[in-house]
């Protein structure tokens, strides 16, 4: 749909679609996508990533798990390798620590946002 | 089976062993030639543009490519069961699989493409290089041996000196391809390349080559007719690449003068003629310091074929179909290029998150038509963009009289292009198209990595923009349950489709 808005003294027709809590609109030559928080406050309040929590950045398949639960890891170490759209992506430890949770298994399909690994503080 | 193999001749029904925008491209060309079309598709591709456009469809297997688009037998059976007399493989998938080409013909159908022998010679990147080397052509030094052990590979890297590039022997399109910059990362990268090669091409064989740091990617479109004559359709430049996947392509190259153009065309033609090449193919070169080196031959239609079509006034897909039908093309002996064409590949990815693949339901799409603008699109609003296949969802191609005008047209076109539901790389394309190095035409294959490897930084919204977002949100949220009386045109607008679903 289009929404008419006043902008700098002019009426502008803005193409807009809202779907699953996300607002898509085309504005001044660029498509924008903003997550609308449940509390109705606009402005793109996206969930902050927590340190040590590694979730699937996209839907895809886990191809390799390089660590086991209880392993000590260092920041930057490759933990899980995923494949999506035929490209490989490697999830790396974002801090030094110990693997406290491991939900990844080679060959298994995972969804966007699935928590695959937790790296606990030592 | 009592089929008589045949390689060329009249047919009326064509199977398309592909998906997405290229399937649409082939179906349209075939329908315009009066052919019936059958889409051979996977179980998750019923909601795509090609599925709706094809005269007939047949599901050949489940979502994973290995079970459908890469499954030779499933494609053959699907085509036979629907009475196809020929198969066009598009690009990617089975398009460069000699066994498939052979199987198609062994089952009495025509393979729209080069001969199995052509594919076998050039499809294996190692035998292709040897063929070029033997005919005195320019190749890059490297290791193409049978010993694929990691120890040997690393030893060869050390001898060659870094940087070294590792490529899949059976590959193309950037998959299974890694640049190795030091010994520390060599093992990891080679093993990763072998894995990617295995999963993408069914063979883990890789080879090593000295990596040219400041080279341009130049490729020559060739087309062989059954009499053995090969025509050069001049070159394209595809130096704007990320992880060795092309992003922006253009014809002609801003980097060649007439002399070099004639030379590179001649090398490509000689190579194709020496192999009795039939149909559309592309000879890829790297150009550095005025020297060009053979890289590979792609024995198929290329993703970027439209830029050649626009500057030369040809239809390469129809030419492929005509050749398969045994009909002459009536092309001039030498093509005269007109103006400049640029193609941008639209990838479903988030440019503000380092190009992370983006999947989801396509909520709305608007492709702003205009003189010299062309869109190749595989999805329509309501369709799902899944993680099963390549992230390229569309191509935007423009033509204008000069390169700079074509760039301006592309920027304008992209600014009016709307895709809701999945993120696209359009913001990134815009930044590239405005970059000084691209504008100068001096970009090399390192251009993207040098300037854009970090992706784009998301800009904070200003106060007035936040207010705008709130207004839009309030309007769209308030209106979702009631008819939009304010916006009388909504029902017939391109948004009405998604409107009903939101």
Write the element-wise H/E pattern of chain A from the N-terminal end onward. Answer: EEEEEEEEEEEE
Strand order of the largest sheet of chain A: 1-2-3-4
Count of β-strands of chain A? 12
Alpha-beta content class of chain A: mainly beta
Beta-strand segment tally of chain B: 23
Q: What is the overall number of helices of chain A?
A: 0
| Fraction of residues in β-strands of chain A | over 45%
Spatial strand arrangement across the major sheet of chain B:
14-13-10-11-12-15-22-20
Low-confidence stretches of chain B: 480-502
> How many distinct helices of chain B?
17
The stretches of 5 or more residues of chain A where confidence is low (pLDDT under 50) are: 38-48
What percent strand of chain B?
15-25%
Average residue pLDDT of chain A: 83
> Which structural class do the helices and strands of chain B define?
alpha+beta
Gross geometry of chain A: elongated
Subunit arrangement of the protein: heterodimer
Task: Characterize the biggest β-sheet of chain B.
Answer: 8 strands, antiparallel
Helix content of chain A: under 10%
Describe this structure in words.
The complex is a heterodimer of chains A (122) and B (502). Helices cover 0% and strands 54% of the residues of chain A. By secondary structure, chain A is an all-beta fold. The radius of gyration of chain A is 20 Å and the shape is elongated. Residues 38-48 of chain A have low confidence and may be disordered. Chain A starts with a strand and ends with a strand. In chain A, strands 1-2-3-4 form a four-stranded antiparallel beta sheet, with no helix packed on it. A four-stranded antiparallel beta sheet of chain A has the order 5-12-10-7, with no helix packed on it. Chain A contains no helices and twelve strands. Chain B is α+β, with helices and mostly antiparallel strands and 502 residues long. Chain B is 35% helix and 24% strand. Chain B has helices spanning 20-32, 49-53, 72-81, 98-106, 116-123, 125-134, 150-160, 183-201, 258-274, 305-312, 316-324, 403-416, 426-434, 436-440, 447-452, 463-479, 496-501, and strands spanning 13-16, 36-42, 56-61, 86-88, 110-111, 142-143, 164-168, 178-180, 206-210, 216-224, 230-242, 245-251, 279-288, 291-298, 340-347, 349-350, 356-357, 360-361, 364-366, 373-377, 384-385, 392-400, 418-420. An eight-stranded antiparallel beta sheet of chain B has the order 14-13-10-11-12-15-22-20. In chain B, strand 13 (279-288) and strand 14 (291-298) form a beta hairpin. In chain B, helix 4 (98-106) packs antiparallel against helix 5 (116-123) and helix 7 packs across helix 8. Residues 480-502 of chain B have low confidence and may be disordered. Classes of the chains: A mainly beta (122), B alpha+beta (502).
